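In this supplementary section we document a worked example of the pipeline. Step one takes a protein sequence of length 436 as its only input; no multiple sequence alignment statistics are reported here. Step two produces a three-dimensional model, which step three serialises into structure tokens for compact storage. The input and output of this example are shown verbatim.
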Amino acid sequence: MNIPPSAPLERRAFLLRSSAALAATSLTGFPMIGSGKDAVQPLKIALVGCGGRGAGAANQALAADSNTKLVAVADLFPDKLSAGLDALKAKHGDRVDVPQERQFVGVDGYKHAIALADVVLLATPCSFRPAHFEEAVRLGKHAFLEKPVAVDAPGVRRVLAAAAEAKAKNLKVAVGFQRRHKKGFQEMIRRIHGGQLGEVIYTRAFANTPLRTGLVRKPEFSELEYQCRNWYYFSWLSADFIVDNLIHGIDISNWVHGGYPVRAHGMGALSERSPDYGNLFDHFAIEWEYASGARLFGECDRRPGCWASVTNHVVGSEGKADFFDGREVYSITGKRPWQMKTERGENPYQSEHDDFFEAIRKDLPYDESDYGAKSTMTAIMGRMAAYSGKIIEWDAAFASDRTLAPEIRSLADPAPVLPEGNGLYPIPVAGKTLVL
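The serialised model returned by step three reads:
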């Protein structure tokens, strides 16, 4: 399946597994929602992945619609499930209606949780996202997918195929690119697309952020459990730093350019190696080229003590635009200057769920899967370029059958990557590593 890069933009139990029938029996008081037209009926929500982002998404989903209940949760680990669920109960009280028989632990727990809901929130490490989304669509559930949506090209293609089925079933699909729901970003894009900068020549995106602390291994952890708990630092789970973090800036640049790059080249490396920090690079610098000849220069850096910046910039033939996310300042300089300052209290994480649930209730068209998948692919293509040291073409990258994420059937499975004799994990070597 070949997606033209210039195509226009359209938007993570306490009982291991009780039977779905038993769990469903306790939900007879909640009528099912079909198209979402009836605002009187409650919407049943399931959360898959109960870590910080998952609990955050559930909190926002419950706040977005007062007639919702969280009725099922799933996670690989009972302690993660318990912590997330306790936080949600403290915040939302009896709207968190998840007794033990609807708490599912283990690799297959997502299937049982999804079956009990109208709306599912998928917030595990992104290596699991394609399979979880496929199940949600198969069962006819509206779905929120946290970004990124996959770790490799085969996963991206699975998400796009499931999205096509979701569209045929009139299911609403949201993807966690919350910046697209911010007033400042929306107004800036409107003005850029209206010609206020003239012809767009290049964009820049930065995600230079402090190092996140790695997880120290406990003696009782198997290798696979350790990696799943320390998921951020293993590329088969997180897709690497460039995909997990810079992806927001990449997505905004794709939005500005109105399409997707045709090729990429660049570099990256790991400066200081430690067993606690897995097999990721800690800095990347990539140049993507669009069909128009315009460029995106992207940079991300998590090395301690280095310059920090999370911004987007656009340079055109008649001016330039600067997005200072967090400071909520958006400005254009040049022939037609303009500036906008928005309320710093604006919460785009909440806004994206407000919009999503409104679409479900009113049966409005709502599908963020296309740009969610293709911006993920753009970031993956940049990773491929840095890992290999080669120029990577979109068509070859998108068609690649090389996988990072194997199918995990249980936590007793062997881990996809293993430490070497010194306790360090092997990392890609530019000029030697094969990515296609």
